[in-house]
Amino acid sequence: MDRVRAQVDRYEETGGREGGTLDGRPVIILTTRGARTGRLRKNPVMRIRNGGTYVAVASNGGATTNPSWYYNLLAHPEVSVQDGTSTHRLRAREVHGAEKRRWWTVADAAWPHFAQFRAEAGTREIPVLVLEPSSTDPIIAP
Fold first, then answer.
1. How far is CA 17 from the centre of its chain?
2. How far apart are CA 86 and CA 90, in angstroms?
3. Distance CA 72, CA 131 (A)
4. CA angle 102, 115, 112 (to 5 degrees)
5. For a designed S-S bond to 60, which of 16, 18, 67, 98 qualifies (C-beta 3.0 to 4.6 A apart)?
6. 17 by DSSP, 3-state: which?
7. Residue of 38, 30, 12 lying closest to 79 (CA atoms)
8. pLDDT value at position 91?
9. In the prediction, which pLDDT does 1 show?
10. Are 73 and 129 in contact (CB under 8 A)?
């Protein structure tokens, strides 16, 4: 967790000019509310965007368990995404079936390790969530 906290701090302190990559690929800062605590939680996730929609892949690096931020999104789908110097208020929803397969195509093009992560996750089906613009949800303040 220290690595995550350090990356988030660097990203925010520099307006996304530093700390914004993982293995040379861009990341965003996903701000959620804790599922149990309601406290703000911040995590760097791969920047996967198609138009005004972002995709959050709960791969957890191929682990057999979902990342904690996935449960936060289910409990509190209103999120904030910092993408460089821009911050967006979005609403998360998990996708399934044909829609999920379509978003996997977009995600795989952005981060080639996802295929390996799916294989390593064993029986766990990796959740895919779309983060779409929302004008009616409350703003998540830092």
1. 19
2. 13
3. 13
4. 85
5. 67
6. coil
7. 30
8. 96
9. 57
10. yes
Q: Provide the token pair at 65.
A: 């368990």
| Predicted pLDDT of residue 10 | 85
CB 41 within 8 A of CB 31: yes
Which pLDDT belongs to residue 2? 81
What 92-100 contacts at long range (C-beta under 8 Å, 24+ apart), as own/partner pairs, is: 92/56, 92/129, 92/130, 92/131, 93/129, 93/130, 93/132, 94/127, 94/128, 94/129, 95/128, 95/129, 95/130, 100/128
Q: How far apart are CA 123 and CA 65, in angstroms?
A: 10
CB atoms closer than 10 angstroms to residue 111: 20
- Residue 63 has, within 13 A of its CA and on its CB side, a CA count of 8
Mean pLDDT by 10 residues, the chain (142 residues): 78 80 85 96 93 94 95 97 92 97 96 93 96 66 45
The answer to pTM > 0.90 is no
Place of tokens 């990342």: 67
